[in-house]
Design a protein that fits this description.
Largest sheet: 5 strands, mixed
Structural class: alpha/beta
Order of helices and strands: EEHEHEHEHH
Mean pLDDT: 89
Distance between the termini: 10 Å
CATH class: Alpha Beta
CATH architecture: 2-Layer Sandwich
Oligomer: single chain
Number of strands: 5
Low-confidence stretches: none
CATH superfamily: STAS domain
Shape: globular
Strand content: 25-35%
Length: 139
């Protein structure tokens, strides 16, 4: 599956990984599955790994609709959710910046885009080793 996620309850972290062609529908399906997961919590930080994205579906209307759905879900929590997008390539960085812009003016999330692994670990308050461990586990 091009989009997968894994919840790490002990770290209050969700690791999301996109690979290959990033399609809005698949992202939405994975997010819906996350919301229905018994370990899903509104205070979990989201680490979105876009490093394996090779192409991005160019359906901006659906992308913004998807982000609106995410915003509605995240705004149900008491505090904004932290979303960190790891985008080390030109393709993934373009995708992450577009997603970041879709959150402008909304209160449900704090969105950061990074191109360096260590920067993601710092923002999430995790050691780089912990982030390495999370990313290596089967998702």
């Amino acid at each position: 599956m091009p989009v997968s996620f894994r919840i790490f309850e002990d770290a209050a972290l969700v690791y999301v990984r996109y690979a290959g062609l990033a399609r809005v529908a698949e992202g939405f399906d994975a997010f819906t599955a996350y919301l229905m997961h018994p370990d899903s919590r509104p205070d979990q930080r989201q680490f979105v790994d876009l490093s394996a994205v090779t192409e991005v579906e160019q359906d901006f209307m659906r992308l913004f609709q998807f982000q609106a759905e995410k915003a509605a879900a995240f705004m149900a929590g008491r505090a904004p959710v932290m979303l960190v997008y790891y985008a080390p390539t030109e393709i993934s960085l373009g995708m992450a910046r577009l997603i970041q812009r879709s959150w402008e003016g909304l209160d449900g999330a704090i969105v950061r885009v990074v191109t360096e692994w260590d920067a993601a670990a710092d923002i999430l308050g995790l050691g780089a080793e912990m982030l390495d461990t999370v990313a290596r586990r089967e998702v």
